[in-house]
Amino acid sequence: MTEITTDLYQVKEKMYVATDCIIFGFHEGKLKLLVFKRKVEPLKGESSLIGSFVRLDEDLDVAGRRVLKEATGLENVFMQQLKSYGKKDRDPGYRCISIAQYALIRIDEYDEKLVEEHGAHWYEIDQLPNLILDHNEMVQDAMYQLKHNARYKPIGFELLPEKFTIPQLQILYEAIYQRELDARNFRKKVLSLNVLKKLDEKDKTTSKRGAFLYKFDYENYQKLLTSGYNFEIA
Amino acid sequence: MTEITTDLYQVKEKMYVATDCIIFGFHEGKLKLLVFKRKVEPLKGESSLIGSFVRLDEDLDVAGRRVLKEATGLENVFMQQLKSYGKKDRDPGYRCISIAQYALIRIDEYDEKLVEEHGAHWYEIDQLPNLILDHNEMVQDAMYQLKHNARYKPIGFELLPEKFTIPQLQILYEAIYQRELDARNFRKKVLSLNVLKKLDEKDKTTSKRGAFLYKFDYENYQKLLTSGYNFEIA
DNA sequence: GTAATAAATGTAAAATATACGCTCATTCTA
DNA sequence: TAGAATGAGCGTATATTTTACATTTATTAC
């Protein structure tokens, strides 16, 4: 057996490695978080993020996607590592570190039944219940990260349906930044990024006139990225 | 025994948890990385980051600081979690995930003897040797993170001696960003941040006239932070 | 056909970033 | 001890970006 990672020490102790998922969604103009109810003791009935142990034959990111899929039915969504939480007594039962990963999902796409089976519930981001262990901290950190990332990468689009209007996009960014944005300036800015494809369709659910639908232009985004473009949004 | 973290699964498998340290320094106008030589098989003699298993009774960040101290003798330096590396086969010997943490140290402060004992060597950041396992990736990620962070948090100061001149600070930022900066604009910008205390001393090692020494003003920095100040540098 | 509603557009002022050249303080040496 | 040499330190003009703000337009409902 090879033993590679450490030079300094012989102290080799195994521990549990878990991953917890911070699942963001956007619905009715509100940024929301998917919160679960524990079904087993201890802390049965308490609110919590959804998580799982990482299996020995499973990549870390694969574990996150497995959890997400089992909780929501969704695959191929935006998911990114947030941070590891490794205080020695973070879990009172045994030593376990958790790598938190956060996902951005289109609420119209997830499987409600699956979610219900897990006792899940969407909460508005500023009306969250108290969560077990260090999950509150995870959510806070994820929220910070989301705000930060949304500013430089167009990840906001991951939370919207494939087709969306500029006003919808603005409301999303307002929810992320938790402040109001100027409609004219916002429109100017996002259009100037050249990553939106205007469609010939309109969405008329919010106005009589209707707002044009757009798609995110992944190809052009990639092209601009490699040419060293700056994507500061809003 | 309580079992808290997971709802979904009973699959509970322990694994090794390691931490690897990416140690940046700044010396002679160059950004450098501390690289170690493995002293044990397998891969004996290969270049590597320094790391250790995380102990069962040890917080994750404490483990990072322990490794850093044992490798360099330094405590109380800037250290921050980078990312977890968790591919199932990243270490050919056994399943082990590693949480990479990066440190910024003042090269004039570290204990050379300790470093030598570990077969360590400072490499310029653009002349690194090949490293074992996924350590190259860790360094790349850390470099990206450093560039990014240096832009919004005044972490650059962590790499300089306590007293430094503006031209020195500029050279550091040039090393981090890997491009030249305009001396007049750089000076204007950093001074406008109001986090530098000008001292009455001069450093005359690089010019006849001498350059005034400054200290980073942590107090004022904290004050400005809480008042929501924007710290974009360079 | 008119009232109502949100979508869409433009421009001027303020703030910020960039580009660029000269003087100053000090040391070295002739 | 005068003056040449060197990097430190400063200021201003221009370009770019951000902000603030008001009106018209397309469509539906009555």
UniProtKB/TrEMBL annotation, chains A, B:
Stated name of the protein: NrtR DNA-binding winged helix domain-containing protein
Every NrtR DNA-binding winged helix domain range: 156-216
Classification via InterPro entries: NUDIX_hydrolase-like_dom_sf, WH-like_DNA-bd_sf, WH_DNA-bd_sf, WHD_NrtR
Organism of origin: Christiangramia echinicola
Xref: Pfam families: WHD_NrtR
